[in-house]
Amino acid sequence: MKSLKSFKMNFRKKDPFHDGGRCGVRMKQLPFMGILCIGMVFVVYRTMIYQHHQTQIDARMDPFDISREIHLSSWQLRNLPRGIVQAASDLELRPLWSHGNSNSKKFQLDSSGAEVEYPTGRYLLAMPVGIKQKHNVHAIVQKFLPENFTIMLFHYDGKLDGWNDLAWSAHALHVVAHNQTKWWFAKRFLHPNIVSLYDYIFLWDEDLGVRNFHPGRYLRIVRSAGLEISQPALHPNSTEIHHRITIRARTKKFHRRVWDMRGSTKCTNSSRGPPCTGFVEGMAPVFSRSAWFCTWHLLQNDLVHGWGMDIKLGYCAQGDRTKKVGVVDSEYIFHMGIQTLGGGDHSGKKASSSEEHSNKNSKHGSSFDVRMEIRRQSTRELEIFKERWNKAVEEDKNWFDPFTMDSVVVGDDHERRRLKHRHKVRA
Ligand SMILES: *[C@@H]1O[C@H](CO)[C@@H](O)[C@H](O)[C@H]1NC(C)=O
Ligand SMILES: *[C@@H]1O[C@H](CO)[C@@H](O)[C@H](O)[C@H]1NC(C)=O
Ligand SMILES: *[C@@H]1O[C@H](CO)[C@@H](O)[C@H](O)[C@H]1NC(C)=O
Ligand SMILES: *[C@@H]1O[C@H](CO)[C@@H](O)[C@H](O)[C@H]1NC(C)=O
């Protein structure tokens, strides 16, 4: 139903442009009509800007029109006629041949293996995966496939062959890079110009239980609430709950803030920023197209653990982060907190201790703890990120903090030290 609706909307959206084309011809004969048409097109254009969540890949008001304009004016493209330039792409598999006129058609296989035409609303699920989590990843993907998601897996353990027996595997995209993190993959393979087709991007960890999660319902909530950055709430039984705002509120559909007067955490109605409001955590973020465009630019190429990013994500919320960032309660997940490499924040995995490693790391006694090393590296990266942010703020004379009213208070005990570091950034 939903896709049908947006399909109709897209049709309606297209019409003015067809009209605009016709007007363009008439304009030559009738200057008055021409001005009218230009005005009309402008109004539609402005409307389109606000409807940035609607896919319109071939229309001129594509959100990446800006970058296209930059490209067009660039020296390198000067010999190409404007109309041939395509600044965006997607991750869809395409048939080697097609029957009849399928110029604008996109294909996907449904569960029975039949080819179906793509709906207008398209979404991307991108996950770092290791073969040890195959069972769980399979469960997640099966939930997403019927909802017209494109699946992209980042294999950080290189064990690609182990997935071949799953029917959907041949229709997913697989990227292999040993020991790389979710953010490393995302920076390299989810460039905004490549994923501009997708209304929403789910950049999830592999250790999430989705028994109580339905992607379609989730998207309906996120859309109607206008959440540009979101995450499903975590069931209270989840391990590694770092922030109260991520915990599921049983009676709500979604929430944008948390109230908490206990301990060192003071989240009140006057709280204006993380972790009380305007905040999601790194394990299951969902981005709108525009939010992802911003987030990708915020991602640092070399800081692969992504620490410190979550606290800044609100700057990519395309407006007031207390309104456009939220946690969906009615569709929730279990965070299993399994130690995997691919996950950002809580990443790390135990390696079998070897002589060589233990010698190199006498500080940690006899066994080399990969997890500990990753944690230390993450902390280092966090410091670097903070420095970069502060330097950028200092150097950009035109920048002003849209969220100057922030009151940042620190949460759970085991996260306190880390957060303390993080929050210094804001000071
Ligand atoms: C997925 O796409 C198919 C084919 O276009 C459509 O019939 C179906 O309703 C879509 N499902 C959802 C959940 O959007
Ligand atoms: C990846 O990490 C594991 C464990 O830390 C290590 O044993 C392996 O050699 C690494 N692989 C590569 C290709 O670096
Ligand atoms: C959550 O944990 C409680 C206490 O351990 C248990 O009784 C309950 O069944 C758990 N709920 C789920 C959904 O796992
Ligand atoms: C916070 O705001 C809510 C909703 O506006 C209101 O019901 C509540 O009384 C307020 N609480 C405080 C402590 O001001």
UniProtKB/TrEMBL annotation:
Keywords per UniProt: Membrane, Transmembrane, Transmembrane helix
InterPro entries cross-referenced by the UniProt entry: DUF707 (IPR007877)
Domain of life: Eukaryota
Membrane-spanning intervals of the chain: 30-48
Signal listed as a keyword: no
Keyword S-adenosyl-L-methionine: no
Ranges of Basic and acidic residues composition bias in the record: 346-359
Name this polypeptide is given: Lysine ketoglutarate reductase trans-splicing-like protein
Region (Disordered): 343-370
